[in-house]
Amino acid sequence: MIKKEMIAMLLAGGQGSRLGVLTSKVAKPAVAFGGKYRIIDFPLSNCINSGVDTVGVLTQYQPLRLNTHIGIGIPWDLDRNVGGVTVLPPYEKSTSSEWYTGTANAIYQNLEYMETFNPDYVLILSGDHIYKMDYEVMLDFHKANNADVTIAAMPVPMEEASRFGIVVTDEESRISEFEEKPEKPSSNLASMGIYIFSWPVLKKALIELSDQPNCDFGKHIIPYCFQNDQRLFAYEYNGYWKDVGTLGSYWEANMELIDIVPEFNLYEEFWKIYTNSANLPPMYVSEDAVIDKSIISNGSEIYGEVHSSVLGAGVTVGKGSVIRDSIIMQNVTIGEGCVVDKGIIAEGTKVGSNVVIGIGSDVPNKEKPQIYAGGLATIGENSVIPSDVQIGKNVAISGVTVAADYKDGLLASGETLIKAGGLI
Q1: What gap in Å lies between CA 199 and CA 392, rounded to an integer?
Q2: What is the pTM of this model?
Q3: What is the pLDDT of residues 94-111, one digit of tens each?
Q4: Are 396 and 418 in contact (CB under 8 A)?
Q5: Dihedral pair phi/psi, residue 135, rounded to 5°
Q6: Cβ neighbour number for residue 420 with a 10 Å cutoff
């Protein structure tokens, strides 16, 4: 019988609809971040840096790129004979074919996988946060308190507390109250969606609540454990943690990487972030190019100017073009004489010459003002932008667009342009 002290279950099935066109063809954990990485690289790297060598990755929405990226786990040293990384999509059972309907339901459907390792503890993680955490320290805390469930929690501003699961603790960090997204929060200690369960406790709760529709950790499992007098503790975390669930927070987190003293440092020797990176040639910078305060990945060719931006691998910036405060993902080609201000341009997009992106006033987006905001211009992957057009702020573009789609050569601020093959 294989025996693992702690295994991790990484929830990576979410669509991330608040990222708009960025997640129309790819799961949120597979979205590019920081030039060469993808969001899922952070929890996976935390696992291997914390000595957790058995990780089940639960996928569902648009999993192809995520599955290809993870592969057999080589970049994270998770290609093990025993344990390692396993991708766990929903599958057809003899009686029915069931999608994962909630975070806990997804874990419940993989009880058999967890049983294989006969763990003492199970670590539940989310695949869409940017942070560094030593899960071993959290496990030591769990053991020291003889806890049944430990919830990683961090202080958040009181005005934001109602967006989270909120815990109230006594002086020994034992949880005395748990409220999921309360209207009037009684504390500002927010659950980070990172849990350590003692295996028998998790197994019992999952089986007991297996009939619960859309069974979820925050809404069902944690309250169930709490009501059944289990020992719940809050492990307080005070490091950098970013939920990159909105375009604004995603853009900010990328921009924070290029600060003089970044709050989140990708360059630390002792806590490396691993990724599956292609074997690419080095970056080329022409004699006329100007680059400052930017992250530029391998295989890029810069003939223009790049200021305060994050560029993925294989990006070409044409002569006379100026990129500012933008995120340009891998294999994007930007023609000559373009200006990009506060743009998020997804992978494989081709931008013609003399295109201006991010002009005009900060008008709210007409169709989805809550998604396309913050003055950003967002372009989905594999889109085509013709030459000689101007694009405003708070816009969304996806698909192969042509000159005729731009009235008088302009897509005004707040407009949305989705062509065949593009999804909003």
Answers
A1: 52
A2: 0.88
A3: 344 455 667 788 888 889
A4: yes
A5: -70, -20
A6: 7
